[in-house]
Every structure is written in structure tokens, then in C-alpha cells.
Predict the 3D structure of the following.
Amino acid sequence: MMEYWMIRSIRETPKILKDVVKTPIDIPEDFKRYKRILFIGCGSSYYSSLAGAYTFLRLSSEIKAVAFPASEFILTYSNLSKDSLVFLSSRSGETKEIITAAKIVKQQGGKVIGITCNESSTLTKVSDAFYIIRDGEEPNIPATKSFSAITLILQKIAISLLNDTEAIESLEKDISKIPKVAKKIIEDEKEFMKISDRTLANKSLFVHLGSGATYIVTLEGALKFRETSYIANEVFPMFEFRHGPIALKVHKDKIATFLVLHKTCKEYEENIRRFILEINDLKPIIITNNPELSEFSDNTYLVPWSGSEVLSIIPFVIPYQIMAYYLSISLGHDPDNPSGLAKYVSNF
Ligand code: F1P
């Protein structure tokens, strides 16, 4: 079977993450004085931005971090630029909405920090400072290792902006474990190929259910399937599925459902068990690090992650990237060059 770049890029994730773990995040002390922290990106880089904002919000006592797609920031929220520290993420560093957003922020007196894989990109030229991710460039259009690397940089930045030194130390220990865990998950590659072939091949709608960090995982996972297999994907915070979208169950034979859960929801374990029984007829694929949930599905993947919930995003997204890759090739598509997609969107 021909191997496309996408699976090779996924397999390079542990190596690139090792470099990111070693990247010093020298945030100047005065950065903590900004009233707001904005994380902005497009596509997969928007989901990395959500991960950055989520990390800060979950670990800080201040509600001052938020993520936007660059186009929404430009059309609706550019008034937030003043007194804001703005992290603009872009694998290519050339996405037009990102460059436009950078100019707006600077015009209004905000501070622009770029995160990109492309050292000679326009984003580095319009930023006040920037972080470069070495070897982040991918021949495959759908982001894989670059998503994980940009996400980890943003999470490291968010953690460095916290004031709680104890929390920072413990999270930095967790961060150092991620590359090894990524390697272990990638070694299970054939397990994900089986799930794709056995469960996904003849479905016409994918439904993804997550919560907290794993909700961000499902957003990026759904995008991977859309980009590489051209299948409709719906994503919901887990219990939101009960407020209307559960009507989709009428199509249960054509639906593949993913339930992505970190074990932290201990105090709501009973509610979660009842919910899983409520959607049992959808035969969910369960991606979790809670072994007690494996009784609910023949398709359960136990993610070997025992670290914090906020840092579970990268370990939990790799199974999605691999499943999307194998589904795409089993459907006869080219996962590297999806129809109608460009490496980046150069107009706005
Ligand atoms: C952003 C992006 C990708 C998407 C596709 C089009 O690129 O939307 O997330 O997969 O490649 O471009 P970038 O700003 O991160 O380079």
C-alpha cells in the first residue's frame, strides 16, 4: 500500500514535540499586565488557539483569555485589540486573515506574537516577536504534526503566563511526558486502521462528542475527517447532544459516533454512564484514558495518558489523525492533497 506524506508526518510527531518541549518560552514579565490574552488562528490553527485559551482559562483565576477564528476577530472582535496580548498561529505564516488580523492589532496598540513553522513568512515580519517551530512544515495539506507542535507551544505559553509556580512545575513535568506518550500511541497505528476499516467505511455522517479539552480534540478530529474523506461531521459538547441533535439517532445505521472522554469527570461518572446508555444504539467509538468506560463499546481505545486534563489534547488527537488517514486511503482518496484545499488561504 502506497504511503502518503500524512502518515509520515504523523509519525514525526514525537520528534517535533521533543524539540518543542526543549523550546524556552521567555515571556517578559510585563506580558502578564495585559488586560486580555487573545489566541487567534484559522482551521487547525484555530483549534490550536482554542487549546491555548483553554489552558489559561482552566488554570488561571482570571477570565482574560479567549480564542477566535481570525475572520471572526476581524469582522466582529477587532475592538478587543487595545491592551491585548495577541498570539497569532499559522503553520504557513501566510494565511491572509492572519496577516490582516496582525495589522489590525498593531494599528490599535495591541502586542502581536506570531507562532509559525515558516521562518521567512509574512507573519514573522508583521509580529512584534515570534516562535518558530523547526521541521513543522508538512507536504500534506491537512495539518498533523504541526497541529500538535503549535498546540504545545501555545499551551507552554499559556502556562508561563500563570502566576501559580507550583502548578507550572507540575504541568511542565506533564509536558515532558507528551513526546513518549505520542510515540506509544503511534505504535498502535494498526489498531486505528482496523477501527477505520471495520466501523467507518460505510457511514455518511460522523458525530463527535467531547468535553473540556476533549471537545477541542473532537473539533480538530472532525476537521481531519472532513478534509481527507469528504464526510459530513457534527461536533457537540457531550451533553449538548441531548438538547436537540440527539434526534439524529433516526439515522443511526448511517452514523459513526465518537465519544472522547478524559477520566477527570469523576464527580459526574453516573451522569456519563447514563448518557452512554442513552446513546448506546449509536454504538460509539470511545477514545478515553478511563478503563471503566471500555465496558460500553467493542471499539474503545485507551489513551495511555495519565497527565493533566488540559494537556490531554495532543495524546487524544493522534488517534483521530491516524483513523482519518486510513479511512481516506480505504475510500481511494489522496489524504495529502484534498480536493479544493490549498496549503493555506492566500486571499481575504
Ligand atoms: C490554516 C488552514 C489549515 C487547513 C488547510 C488550509 O493554515 O486552514 O488549517 O488544514 O491547510 O489552511 P495555516 O494558517 O495554519 O497555515
User: Anything to note?
Assistant: The first strand starts at residue 36 and ends at 41.
